[in-house]
Amino acid sequence: QVQLVESGGGLVQPGGSLRLSCAASGSIASIGAMGWYRQAPGKQRELVATITSGGTTNYADSVKGRFTISRDSAKNTVYLQMNSLKPEDTAVYYCNADIIRRSTWASRNYWGQGTQVTVSS
């Protein structure tokens, strides 16, 4: 069994910062790309940022210069540092990862349960 568990969401004022964490646990052989997506009410889920196992990053245009994705491979954890937050960043943020399980040695895509981020004064 493999799980992704997010933490760090909450309520923050415009211009503030939050740091999201997502830890993968279970019988993991290796982790490939990891990323963050978000879904606002009434909207489709969209990509926020991704990071490969080699550290190459990709960001949505709407968050470039404000958000930073990073990972700690030793801890099987991916982070999202969010600065200069805006009300339009309000959404449920989901962690995503390509994980190879020791039992199957096949890659499968996993999602976390989501964490709410609300930017409001």
Please supply descriptive tags for the structure shown above.
single chain; 121 residues; mainly beta; seven-stranded mixed sheet; four-stranded antiparallel sheet; 11 strands; 0% helix; elongated
Number of helices: 0
User: Which structural class do the helices and strands define?
Assistant: mainly beta
N→C terminal distance: 40 Å
Classify the beta-strand content into a percent band.
over 45%
Q: Quaternary arrangement of the chains shown?
A: single chain
Task: Give a count of the beta strands, DSSP E runs of length 2 or more.
Answer: 11
Question: Topology as H/E string?
Answer: EEEEEEEEEEE
Evaluate the radius of gyration. 14 Å
Shape verdict = elongated
How much is the average pLDDT? Answer: 97
Estimate the helix proportion, in percent. under 10%
Q: Spans with pLDDT under 50 lasting ≥5 residues?
A: none
Main sheet makeup: 7 strands, mixed
Secondary-structure blueprint:
Layout: E1 2-7, E2 10-12, E3 18-26, E4 28-39, E5 46-51, E6 57-59, E7 67-72, E8 77-82, E9 91-101, E10 107-111, E11 115-119
Parallel strand pairs: 2-11
Antiparallel strand pairs: 1-3, 3-8, 4-5, 4-9, 5-6, 7-8, 9-10, 9-11
